[in-house]
# Entry
Amino acid sequence: MHRVRLGWWGPEVSEVCFGSLAISPLQGRISHIEGQEVLRYAVTQGIDWIDTAEIYDNYDQLKPILKIFPELRIVTKSYASTAEELKTSLETSRKLLGRDILDMYLLHEQESHHTLKGHAAAWDTLLEAKSRGIVSSVGISTHTVQGVRAGALQPGLDVIHPLVNFQGLGIHDGSLGEMIEAIKFAASMGIGIYAMKVFGGGHLTKEPEKALNFIRSIPEIHAMALGMSSIEEIDFNLSFLAGDSISATLRQTVTSKEKKLYIADWCQGCGKCIETCSHQALSLKDGQACVDLDRCVLCGYCGRICPHFCLKIV
Ligand code: SF4
Ligand code: SF4
# Structure
């Protein structure tokens, strides 16, 4: 597995980070145990860091794997905006993941300078946790060009996890070119960059080679988080990145997997899911939720909000 340095002062890690959203209950595509088996396999293949978030609700799934492989690095994220919320998030993460020290801690979905300003108390608390050695690196995840630019200028920030893929799918506030320029700006300041939604949340899985090559073609993107929920996806992605030959059968298995957001017909039309979707992919039509498939990045975040369990990635 190709190894990279995450920014000028960041840790050395495998080029691929395991994106655990794909095995989490939030996406609900595979069982708790199956997810652990997939993750375990990924680790045996050389992946040495895991991306998660408080919202993924899968700390209990990751904890046994982190215990078996103590050298694994863990990244998690929180929506906390106040000092108290951040302290609670940190303590919950440390306890439920079974780690005294968290390798990377990110503020989740920071979309602009204004968002970061609104989270200033949480950020200061995070810096304090870093100075106490509880957290090794701090940063943000973002779906926006403005988020990357604001993150680059944020004092004390080590790492940015931006949304980027070859079609620019899911970038909220600008073009793919603008996102790449922002990433280059952040990387030029020494910040570590690892990409999210490399496959556009599932929209680009028909062209996996193009998706992976695109990320690799930008040297300022040091690493990538890949959401994988099967052994075949791991084999395909890691073989391709290693330059190994891939059988037609494996390619067919991986590219034929389609994902979509399923909305059950018992939807009550309460509208609670609509504002949860930062991609504006949901709306109400004839008293029921409906999804704009071009906007949906299949994150599954809306599923946890629905009081009637109508939303699921299938
Ligand atoms: S509709 Fe749901 S799954 Fe799709 S992008 Fe919005 S929150 Fe994510
Ligand atoms: S939250 Fe659930 S019930 Fe309410 S509109 Fe959305 S899908 Fe329908």
About this structure: Residues 261, 276-277, 279, 281-282, 291, 296-302 surround iron/sulfur cluster (ligand 1) (CB under 6 Å). The mean pLDDT is 95. The longest strand covers residues 135-142. The chain is about 35% helix and 20% strand.
